[in-house]
Amino acid sequence: MQNYIRQSLSLAGTAALALASIPFGAARADDAKVAQGSAKDLGVMSISLKDAIQPNFGFQGALQGAGTPNQSGIGGFLPLAIGDNSVFFLDAQANANFADYNNYSSIINTKVAGTTISTSSRLGYRWLNGDRSWMFGVNAGYDSRPMATGGTDNGVYVTNSRSVFFQQVALNLEAISNKWFTSAYLLYPVGEYGYNKAPAIINNVYTADSVMTAGVDVGYNLTPNLKASVGYYYSEGDAGASNSNSVKGRLEYNIANGLTTGINIAYDPAFSEGYSSGEFYKTLNLSADLKWRFGANGYGAPSIRKKQPVVMPVIQALSATPANRDVRVHDYCSPGFRGERCGVGEIVRWKRGECYLILSTKPFKYTRVECTP
User: Fold this and answer.
1) Helix axes 24-35 and 2-21, enclosed angle (nearest 10)
2) H or E, element range at 316
3) For residues 70 and 100, is the Cβ–Cβ distance under 8 A?
4) What is the rounded distance in angstroms from the CA atom of residue 71 to the CA atom of residue 177?
5) pLDDT digits (tens, 9 = 90+) for 16-26
């Protein structure tokens, strides 16, 4: 697992260096051409970050994804110390997590139920390079997710549904220019159900654990209001059921100042198991999100934004909300039953002690067999 983490962070470092040093003479030249002037001519160097970086707060919401819930809540960005070319900040969120929709489990088999409150906090430092053409940053924090559970989406009868509490620590590195952006992140489960610890029992059949995730994203600003990104991430869980290499894509649109929406698509084998190659479209996880921040014109006053649109992404990035903050959860058949997880060909024991042979996982099919010692 350490190798995957080092590989992901190394990829991000390589991407950041490549983006900062390469043919980006070309990207910076294009930016300067569009603006018809140098950074100095545009007055970028004269922008006071104390005026440009302001606290902002508001609302965010997202539909369920691969291991993540339907949620909505409040959040805010607070600059703690602002220098001539840097900012030290705190960003915090609290979300209400809702039940899964359309009889479809976000954690594979067991449906998330009820309403719980999750939290996320990030403490970070961001700085601009000498000519303010790039912003670099590092942030770290803690995320929590209480999870209530209900029935299943595969026909398996469960009893004694329980609520459990998952936690993780996070690290994120980022590099952003007026055109490109990249980040590397690590989400590491801690606490009672942390990495390499016993999973949580959520009912009489299934257990669940939070998923360690390490990944890297690279994106491009297609227009001043539209950006696209692609990413790779590796997931690992204690039972092995959530181990996978995955890819994702995102489109984000700035509807108005402070109001943004995004569409996400991911191919994550751990959260789409059981389908044949002929049903590839069913292996994709789709989700959407919306965020509204008041006082979110952290890229400067409106007059500055109007005169220097080409520098705005870098200045705005100084007070942007950090990404990759969800505690991802995956369930599987309890190790207390015969079979480590609900895998095809395995035998599990449930429903008053009867034993069943798993024929397929999605849709879930099984047949009763004789129990063996």
Assistant:
1) 50
2) helix 312-317
3) yes
4) 31
5) 444 444 443 44
